[in-house]
Amino acid sequence: MKKVLYILLGILFIACYDDKGSYDYHDINETTIEGIDGSYNVTMGVTTLEIDPKVSMTMADPEDTTRFQYEWRANVAYNSTILLGTTRKLNYPVKLDPRNYTLYFRVIDRQTDLVTVATASLNVGAPYSRGILMIGENREGEVDVQMLAMNTDTVLCKDILANSGLPVLRDPVDIIHTGYNSTDKNIKLWVLTKSQAYFMDRMTFKGNETDVFSKLLYLSQSYDSDFVPVDVIPRIKDKAGNVASSSDRAVVCSNGYIFVGSSFMLGGDYYMDPVNCESSNPNVWLKAKPYLLYSLNKYNGIVWYDETNERFMRVASSYVTSSSTMVDVEGDPFDWDQRKTGRTMVYGENTFNTDGGSTDGNSFALLKDGAGEFYIYKFYVSSSVAKRDSYTINRSLATDFDKADFYAFSSRRTVIFYTVGSRLYAYDYNKGNEKCYLLEDFGENQITMLKCDTQIEPSANPIYLATYNDTDGGSLRKYDQGMDPNKVEVIPVPNACWTGLIKIKNMSWRANN
Amino acid sequence: MKKILYYIMMLPIFLSGCEKDLMDYEGLEGVYFAVQWGDSWGSELTWPYQPYTNVQFIQLGDADTATVNLKVMVTGSVKDYDRTFRVEVNPDSTTAVVNVDYLPLENDIVIKAGEYMAMVPVRLIRTEALQHEEKIIGLKLVANQYFTLAFPEWDAVKGFNSGDIHERFDASLHEIRFSDMMVRPTVWTGTDSSPYNDGAESGLWGAFSRKKLEMICERFDLTYNDFMSTTTMPLVLQNLIAKTMSQLLIDRYNAKDPVLEDDGRLMFFSGCPWTSKIGVPWVPDEDYYD
Predict the structure, then answer these.
(1) What band does A19 get if pLDDT is binned at 50, 70 and 90?
(2) Residue B9: its chain A contacts at CB < 8 A?
C-alpha cells in the first residue's frame, strides 16, 4: 500500500524537478572558416568578386556537397538579402546596387543542422561616379552610353544605356551631368536624344520613360509641341564638378523654347513658362538657336540667338519671365541685331578665354551671311553683356571652312578648330596674322566629335577628338594645344587614345555622383 | 484502497496550483463616443479622443451633402447577439435645424453580434448660410436596456497625443461643428499688410480673400484642398500662380476691366505694378475710363 503511495507522490513531484541528469556526449564535426577579409570594395558592373575561403572540418570533408551546403549572401540589415553564390569559392560579377552590405558566408551541415558563418563588409561603389561620359551609336545605330570611369584606374564601362531599362533610342545628342549641388535631388544626369531626353538614376544609370523634362515643368498654358532639351547649363567647369551657379539653370529645347529656373526660388529643379518671348508680347514665342551663351565661371544669365528675328537676346537672371533686347551703339565691334547684316548664327560656344578682361570667360558666336562669309563674335556675358571683338574668316585661307562638320573655339588662343570629314584643321583668326593649318588627316576614320575641354582641365584646354570606322569602331583621342605663338599645333597625349568605343556623338565630364 | 482513491481525487487540487487565474471583465456594459482626430502624420494609434468634430464643406469640393460617421465603442464583453444603443440630438448644444442643415438622425444603432463598435451616420446639408456662420449638431448617447453611459467623465489617455488634447470631457456627448466658410488655407504665400510697404499687401499672393482664391482655382483648375499642403502647392506652383495671376490682373486693368476686392481695392499679386491696402478702395485716375 505504502509503495503505491510513494509511486503516486513520485509522479506528483517529478513535474517540479529540474532535469540535471548526465548524458552521453559525442564529438561532432566542427567547422572553421579562414581566408575572408574584413571588407571588400567593389564596383558595380566592373568588379568580379572572387573569394576562395579555406574551410576546415574536424570530422568531415568540406568538399562533400551532399552533406555541406554553401551560401554567399549580401545583406542589408532589416531590408534585403541577396544570394550571390552557392559554392565554396565565390565568383560573382558584381551586379548589386551601389551601397554598403554585410557579406555572409554560411556553411550548413545538413547532417547536424549546424551552421558556421563568416562575415565581411561589402562596399559596392558606382562605376559611373567619375570619368568621361560618352554618348553615341552602337553598330546597330542605337544610342548607347559608355564611360571612361576614372575612380582609380581608367576602366571602360560599356552598354550602359542598353542595360538602363529605357527603350531603344536613336539620334544621340548629348549626355550631361549637372554637377555639384548641395541639394541631392537637384543633381541630374541627362541623356539627350533628338526624340526625347531622360534624367537617369545617377547611381545605377537606370532610366524611366516618365523621367523627362516635362516632369519638371509648371506651365500656365498648354503648348502644341513637346519640350526636348538639347542643352542644359551651366555645365561642369572643373574636375571637381563645380558649376557657375548651384541654384540657376537654363535649358534650351529642340523646338527653340528656353526655360530658366532658380532652385532657390522654385524649391528645386523646376521650371515655369518659357522665357523666349518679350515682356511686351508674352505669348509670342521666338525660336531660339540651340546655344545658350554664358560665362563658364560665373553665372550672370544667358544670351541666346533669336532665329525668328535674327538677333541676340538676353535673359538677365533666373528670376525674369521674358527676354530683352540689347542696345547697339555706333562703333561697336558688331551689332546684337543682325537683320541689317543678313547674317545668322551657325554655332556658339562658351570658353574660358579672358580677352578684354573677361575673367569669367568669353563666349563665341559663329555667324554666316548669304554670301557664305563667316564671322566670329566674341562677347562677355557678365552682369552686363560686353562685346569684345568680331572677326571675319578669310575663306581663301580657311580650307573648306564652310563644309565643316564640327567647330571648337580655343580658350587659350585666337584659334577655331574645325573638322571636315577625316581632317582636323585649325584657323588662327588673329587679325593680320590669319592662318589655316591642316593638323591631321585620319584617313579612313571619320571624325565624329570635336571638343576643346572646359570641364576636366579648363586651364590646359586640351582637345578631344572622336573618330569612327566600321571595322574598328570608335576611338577617342586627346591632344594638348601647342602654345608656340608662331604656329598652331596639337600634340597627342601619351596613353590618351581609347579604342573599341561607340560612334561618339558627344562627351562630358562627371566628377561625382 | 479508500486512501488511494482519496489521493487520486485530490490530484486535481494539487495540480491546480500551477494554473494562473485570469479575471473576466466585470464592469458595466456601456457606450461612449470614441472619435479621434489630430495631426496629419498621426493615426488612430496616436490621435487623442475628441469631444467634437469639425467639418469644412469647402474642403469637400462641390458636394451638397456630407455624411459624418462618428465612432461609438462599447465597454464590456463582446456578445454573440445584436445589441442596440440609442443616440439623440442634444437640443442644449444644437444650432442646426433638422431637414434644413441636416437630415433626421437614426436614433437606434445596432452593435452587431461579435462586434464592439458601430458608426453613427450624421448627414449634413450644405446651405448658403454656412458660408457666413458655423452650425452645430450636438449628439448624446442615451442609456437603454443594453448599455449604460460608459464614460461621463472621460480623461485623456496617455500616449494619444498627436493633436489637440482635451483633458476631460463627457464621452457620452459629441458635437459636429460645420460650415462652408473659406478660411485662409494652410498654404497662402502672402501677407495682408507689410510694415515695409506702408501697410500694403505683399508677398507672392498678397492678402487672402475668397474671391482671389476662387480666381486661382478657376485659372489653374485647382481646389481648396490643393492649398492645404506644399505637396499639392509646391513653391514652383506658387510662383507660377503669382506670375500668371498678376499678368491676368494687368491685362484686365489695361482693358479697363480691373479686378476689385469686395472692399473696392485693386486685387494684388506680386508682379502687379500697383499697391493695395485692405480697406482702402481704389480710386481710378481721372482719365482711366477715357
Answers:
(1) low
(2) none
